[in-house]
Amino acid sequence: MHDEDVRAGDPEVAKACKGLFAKGSLRSYGPCMPPSRHAQVSDPRVLRALAHPLRGRLLGTLRTGGPSTATRLAGQLGESSGATSYHLRQLEAYGFVGEARRAGRERWWEALHQMTSWDPAELVEQPGGLEANEAMQRHQIEVMGRQLRAWADRGREHGTQWAGVAGLSDYVLRLTPEQTRACLDEVHAVLDRWSVQERPPSPTAVPVALHVATFPLVEPP
After folding, report:
1. Is 77:69 a contact under the CB 8 Å cutoff?
2. Is the pTM of the predicted complex or chain greater than 0.85?
3. Residues in the chain with pLDDT < 50?
């Protein structure tokens, strides 16, 4: 999908967005977001639009940090305010962000959901679905790599207590597709339970990234 194909008010965009408010997932629990608010994506065009690297970072920053302006987001992410403004409007066209308030000429944006979810099995059966799912997977891999590198470089800033619990685990299981789905359902049920713990959170709580990557091994570990 080319950026010029995404326009607020375009009937094709409206059609693509119809199911948003109606499983890979991008989840972020912000300080003011109730745990039930989520976007369910069923259209490959919507998922592909969300896979754009800057849009993903903008949405993630709004989800974890709360409302912000294009200028403030540009400073946080090292981008131009023109680029952040443009991609915020694209996210708005697809129903992921909206206006929180205006302060003079400044427009404050907010994420409309705390998470985005989709069912890969449903998507890959649609035209363009396999490509959209692959594009989002590449985006997720990039995000994961960036977060892990930042932790490796600056994790000690959090002190020894966090160093003692943070880490990576990997398992190699022999499973059928059906068993893999059942395993993931169990894992996600546990994570969903933890995601709705006490609110407001403890003053010592910080955002913690927990990545779940599941795929057949293409080459030996």
Report:
1. no
2. no
3. 1-25, 27-36
